[in-house]
Amino acid sequence: MCGFSVHQFYAFPLQLKSLGFSYDWEREISTTEPEYYKWTQWIFLQLLKRGLAYQAEVPVNWCPALGTVLANEEVVNGVSERGGHPVVRKPMRQWMLKITAYADRLLEDLDELDWPESIKEMQKNWIGRSEGAELDFHILDHDGQEADVKLTVYTTRPDTIFGATYLVVAPEHSLVPSLVSEAQKKCVEEYVELASRKSDLERTELQKEKTGIFSGSYARNPANGEAIPIWIADYVLGSYGTGAIMAVPAHDSRDYDFAVKYDIPIRRVVDLDGESYSNFEECYSGEGMIINSSNPTFGLNINGLRSNEAASKIVNWAEDTGELQVARLAFCRATLSGEPFPVVFLNDTGEIVPLPESELPVTLPELDDFTPTGTGEPPLAKAVSWIKTTDPISGKPSTRETSTMPQWAGSCWYYLRFMDPKNTEALVDKAKEVYWSPVDIYVGGAEHSVLHLLYARFWHKVLYDIGVVSTKEPFQCLINQGLILGEVEYTACRDQTGKLVSAELAEGLVEYWQERVPEEKVVKSGDHFVLKENPSIRLIARAHKMSKSRGNVINPDDVVFEYGADSLRLYEMFMGPLRDSKTWSTGGIEGVHRFLGRTWRLIVGQPLPNGSYENGTVVVGEEPSLEQLRSLHKCIEKVTEEIEGTRFNTGISAMMEFINSAYKWEKPPRSIIEPFVLLLTPYAPHMAEELWFRLGHSISLAYAPFPKANPEYLKDTTVVLPVQINGKTRGTIHVEKTCNEEDAFVLASTDAKLSKYLVGKKIKKRIYVPGRILNVILDRQNVEAVGGGVTSSSQTPRSVAMDEVITAADASSSMRSSPLILSSNLPLFSAFLAFSTAQFLKLFTNWYKEKRWDSRRMLGSGGMPSSHSASVTALAAAIGFQDGMGGSLFALAVVLAAIVMYDASGVRLHAGRQAELLNQIVCELPSEHPLSSARPLRELLGHTPVQEIARSKVEIFDRVQRGQGERESSIGARRVTSIILEDLGGGQGDGSKTTTVEPSMSTVESGGFGGSGRVGLVQETRSGHVKTFWALDSTR
């Protein structure tokens, strides 16, 4: 292990421990230690024995100046990233892994995994890489000639190469700066900036609509020689394949959506099962018969072949011409950073001989000089004494492998070693593997989707076949975490003269430059940020990915030093869902730091004058109230659900709501606070542990069970009870479902809104339906003071009583069912009826004006009468008659009606007249004019002021007539008719009376009473005599 690795190996645990991660440090491993990579070498031997590892001649990136092989990521524009030296493709012998032997199983078992669909799709494309191809597209210069730069794309469908009509590169592709034309430079920079703020998941799986921008450059399709445009789009990831694709919109759904949006040509090259298809609303992504795919100049013709046959022919042609390379993944590196291969080569025959397990681990030699040899050989070639060895089985002279395994080899199985890190006899103990496997949740970035995660699955399946592991898949659930971006940066723009200009104006300048503005000089104005000293200068506000070069990296050690580890942990989880990208804000961490402070003071108490706290807590041992128990268990339920769904931010919000509620209590009970401290543990373990100790526990809370919500306390046992005064609802109160009449009346009398109607008033009687309604009937002398609900003097005491009873029964029934019926909402019904009537009448007004019937007028706008004006006028009138004209609701409706009618007689009316004039102009154009066949514009768009006023008067008059009829009965919102059916008593008297009513009333046809209604049985007892009534509640 090099010095840097040693330093990091010891630095990482220290930092992780300071953050309070609950790792079992007894299981700590290092993939660079011989005790670990001994088993990496053992797994390679199993692959080799089964023919899954082999050597082959494959092209590599060879840099003569550096004398070494470079990875694809180290080559930019055909030169080395370091030094800018030329790089050439050179065939060299490399170790390869035959992942295609497991292709079918790798594909099929993806369906059993709880992984993001975008990651599954990437793996599906990469699993068959040996059947795919890397294609070099030559970029064209401004004269249309091929430049020296090539754009390499990867495709799993080489049979569709003739259908490629454009290329797409990822915004982070290294070639983007050289591809962009001067005209497109600014637009591309802005697009790349926006893309950098999205997570891979947001760019692929969550992004329903594709976005992109033209680079301004073209490349030549090597199959047909056509020049095709190069686009930049964020639905292509730089971490996937080569970071560039050839787009075949006729046969790929993503490419099709993109092509349709940006009007890019779509060329079919595959027919559905040999039969032509013509539905261009959808693309066809399956296999079939190849069409439109020939180039006589190149002698290439795949027309008439099936897709698989065409793909093979394209690959063969590619290898012959050198334009394409079969895509393979080498399993070796020409460096000293990997594990040595556990094989030797016999000097006399060159045969590969695997070393026996007793020879493991094969360790690296000590080298003072590990620079490249310059001959193409790895640095290990310098260790001559180490290279020359003897085959331990045959005793023959042999040579060691000088290449090493790639750096990701050890990470393909590390999860298994965590299960049994000290085992020297086996990779993992079988009993322990059965207990721990598979991994429940794997959290990692999408950049690992097609290398680490894919090869970990491949290796795991091999180990499953040889009986080392008991599960077919290593990771059951995969979560791609979002990026945490740096704090928002503010940028001001200056023009060519150096003068500050607003951001929206700078976009129109040919040239301008930007400069950073400190946050203290910025102020928010509406939805934008501006300079505090000059608010007319709008700034650019953006958050960027953290990087050392940008200087926006947040060092967790600094945050822990200032706010504590618990605040950092809590804020990281409070910023947003785990899968989303989030922007860091120092102000945000201060907020959660205050929340922890409030929690501490609630339990421990207020600080002493010297800033310290007394020992113990201020919690009490009293029995908690029902309200406190409900508050706790609702919090437990919410936090538990959100932890399981990785929505930690909403779980923290639930805890904040709990603390707000707890501050209203006189003293927090111990039986409530202790479970809450356990809830807080995963988020703020250090403070939770301290609080647990102060609560009198000597054993760590890590051994305490996580609290569970009690369903009994999650039930909603309270209801909102409407309170009526003389039949008119004046407010609501919250009561228990089992609350009796007296308790309900006491709550109503102490309610701030209702007390003014009840305190000091003489109560004639109370009508109470448990859990449904409380109706308080005041004595007559109090009616005027209360307002509303005045009883008509013509009503008999019996009818008054009946009205009161049926009002209660009616409210009870409606509260129970609460159906959403249009006719039960007077304003809404009036507006709908007015609109429908106006639209219907347009049939006749149109016939009267034009002497023809046109049914389309019932659905069109404009014309007489105005349905818009009718609707808003009827709405305002209905609200006025129902709730009175002195309320704010009526005022709002009147203003809305005025605006609608003004708009109809103003802008819309003149737009219609302009349309009429334009239609006349078009009609007079000669037939050969391109606009002569244009579709006529709609002319009936508005109304004259006279038409608007006339219609509004009609609707108001209609509502007045209907409103007067509806006010004939003063109590309740319905007309009530009482019918005496039977008199079982005989007395007349003014004694006390008791009235009862069936809570539910049946809907019946009222026959001669007109319309339908609801009937209920009413019994009235007065001075010992009983009268029985059927009460008919006839609906308006």
UniProtKB/TrEMBL annotation:
Which UniProt key words apply to this protein?
A: Aminoacyl-tRNA synthetase, ATP-binding, Cytoplasm, Ligase, Nucleotide-binding, Protein biosynthesis
InterPro entries xrefs? aa-tRNA-synth_Ia, DUF212, Leu-tRNA-ligase, Leu_tRNA-synth_edit, M/V/L/I-tRNA-synth_anticd-bd, Rossmann-like_a/b/a_fold, tRNAsynth_Ia_anticodon-bd, Val/Leu/Ile-tRNA-synth_edit
> If you read the UniProt record, what top EC class would you report for this enzyme, in one word?
ligase
Q: Which reaction does it catalyse?
A: tRNA(Leu) + L-leucine + ATP = L-leucyl-tRNA(Leu) + AMP + diphosphate
Domain named Leucyl-tRNA synthetase editing: which ranges?
A: 124-318
Biological process annotations from GO: leucyl-tRNA aminoacylation
Domain annotation Aminoacyl-tRNA synthetase class Ia: ranges: 543-573
Q: What protein name applies here?
A: leucine--tRNA ligase
The record lists the organism as Stephania cephalantha
